[in-house]
């Protein structure tokens, strides 16, 4: 019975293997038959996959440019056909292009407003704006620095420390972040000592 179903092809074979393993009445006598079905299923699936060479485009393997991509994929010694400021590809959908434009506009507004609120002394609002900026640009050290400074100014030293460490991850050469991290650590220790002094 099982061998007849196996000979019908890969999809019925997978269905039979699943039905046999999920069956609550499957006895020990079917164990050997089940193992052979699953083994044949795996062999059939692997032999049915295309070869790797048939999947990879020819232009990618021989070092020449792929023509379907804007600017192409080129080897390092070939000059780029697209200018460096050109987008990598055109958007797939007009709605997606609109979403990206809105996101860029939001990031540029937050990039201006967060530090401006920080300079004006509205640290709570600055923290909100810098948090939104950091959420949109996770790898931007300036956004994390802005958030850290706003948190530090409010006395939230642990949150400031976390933000400064995140900024340090993205800009390890900035020595001013080391000083900011040190100030936050001292603030945490000072808060602890003030809380438990009696």
Number of strands: 0
Mean pLDDT figure:
73
Ends apart, CA distance between termini: 83 Å
Under CATH, the topology of the largest domain can be stated as: Serine Threonine Protein Phosphatase 5, Tetratricopeptide repeat
Largest sheet: none
Number of domains: 2
> Which stretches of 5+ consecutive residues score pLDDT under 50?
10-23, 26-31, 61-73
Please indicate the percent range of residues in DSSP E strands (runs of 2 or more): under 5%
Overall 3D shape: elongated
The ordered string of helix (H) and strand (E) elements is HHHHHHHHHH
List the total number of helices. 10
Essential attributes:
2 domains; 198 residues; 0% strand; Serine Threonine Protein Phosphatase 5, Tetratricopeptide repeat; elongated
Structural commentary:
Helix 6 (94-120) packs antiparallel against helix 7. The chain has 198 residues and is mainly alpha-helical. The model is unreliable at 10-23, 26-31 and 61-73 (pLDDT under 50). The chain folds into two domains: 2-48; 94-196, Serine Threonine Protein Phosphatase 5, Tetratricopeptide repeat (Alpha Horseshoe), CATH 1.25.40.10. The protein has helices at residues 2-6, 10-22, 31-48, 52-55, 58-61, 94-120, 123-136, 141-154, 157-170, 175-196. The protein is 68% helix and 0% strand. The longest helix is centred in the middle third of the chain and has 27 residues, at 94-120. The chain is elongated.
